[in-house]
């Protein structure tokens, strides 16, 4: 297998991805701002910019000035140094009102979608993770992640995404877990401070 490990310090704003990741939560209308609160002009052509950023090893925690049940994220982004194109992004968000984490993994175009991807480390191996969508930048796994899986990753030092390209070649995309635990602790604390309540999950009709 081939291994790729490139780190990029200029992280791309990930809130648009988070919105898609937590779409059932963020689809609810936002609460009206208080009358005294200044309203921020939004440029629809520019991604929201973080109002607070903290670095923890190879991970960044960013919070955005938005009304949301999950306004913060922890993220690591790897790019190819020669082309500047993203190789791998790992983004985790927390929804306090549901005590739920969600994860988005961004991978390059050209992956074999039907094979999915596997996240593994020396302490954890996921089931096959299925791709949810693709765009011009790549293809995305978007899924809840439970506390047991997060704890297992926190005990490791590095992890990798195992993927297969459309021509059948297997790749391991290695990423660092340096700073994962303090980044996660900060994510939970900051999100609890800044989040609005998520609407209750819709009840499924009886069969």
Explain what the structure shows:
By secondary structure, this protein is α+β, with helices and mostly antiparallel strands. It has a single domain, classed as Immunoglobulin-like (Sandwich), CATH 2.60.40.1880. It contains 4 helices and 11 strands; from the N terminus they run βααββββββββαββα. The strands form 2 sheets. Strands 2-3-4-5-6-9-8 form a 7-stranded antiparallel beta sheet, sandwiched between helices. β8 (131-135) and β9 form a beta hairpin. The chain is globular, with a radius of gyration of 17 Å. It starts with a strand and ends in a 13-residue tail after the last helix.
SSE inventory with pairings:
Elements: E1 2-4, H1 15-21, H2 23-26, E2 52-56, E3 59-63, E4 72-79, E5 86-95, E6 100-107, E7 118-121, E8 131-135, E9 138-145, H3 147-154, E10 158-164, E11 170-176, H4 180-194
Parallel strand pairs: 1-11
Antiparallel strand pairs: 2-3, 3-4, 4-5, 5-6, 6-9, 7-10, 8-9, 10-11
Question: What's the short story on this structure?
Answer:
The chain has helices at residues 15-21, 23-26, 147-154, 180-194, and strands at residues 2-4, 52-56, 59-63, 72-79, 86-95, 100-107, 118-121, 131-135, 138-145, 158-164, 170-176.
Domain count, please report it.
1
Q: What is the name of the CATH class?
A: Mainly Beta
The SSE string, one letter per element, is: EHHEEEEEEEEHEEH
CATH homologous superfamily name? Invasion associated locus B (IalB) protein
Widest sheet: strand ordering? 2-3-4-5-6-9-8
Percentage of residues assigned to helices: 10-25%
Helix count from the secondary structure assignment: 4
The chain-level mean pLDDT equals: 80
CATH architecture: Sandwich
The secondary structure category is: alpha+beta
The percent range for strand residues is: 25-35%
């Amino acid at each position: 297998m081939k291994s790729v490990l490139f780190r990029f310090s200029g992280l791309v704003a990930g809130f648009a991805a988070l919105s898609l990741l937590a779409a059932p939560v963020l689809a609810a209308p936002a609460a009206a701002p208080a009358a005294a609160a200044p309203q921020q002009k939004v440029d629809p052509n520019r991604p929201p910019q973080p109002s607070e950023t903290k670095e923890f090893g190879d991970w960044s925690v960013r919070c955005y000035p938005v009304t949301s049940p999950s306004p913060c994220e922890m993220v690591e982004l790897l790019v190819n140094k020669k082309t500047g194109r993203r190789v791998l992004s790992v983004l985790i968000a927390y929804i306090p009102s549901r005590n739920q984490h969600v994860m988005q993994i961004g991978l390059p175009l050209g992956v074999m979608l039907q094979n999915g991807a596997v996240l593994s480390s020396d302490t954890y191996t996921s089931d096959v993770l299925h791709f949810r969508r693709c765009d011009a930048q790549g293809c995305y796994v978007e899924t809840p992640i439970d506390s047991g899986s997060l704890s297992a990753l926190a005990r490791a030092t590095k992890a990798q995404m195992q993927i297969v390209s459309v021509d059948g070649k297997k790749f391991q995309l290695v990423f660092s877990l340096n700073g994962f635990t303090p980044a996660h602790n900060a994510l939970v604390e900051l999100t609890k401070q800044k989040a609005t309540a998520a609407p209750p999950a819709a009840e499924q009709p009886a069969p």
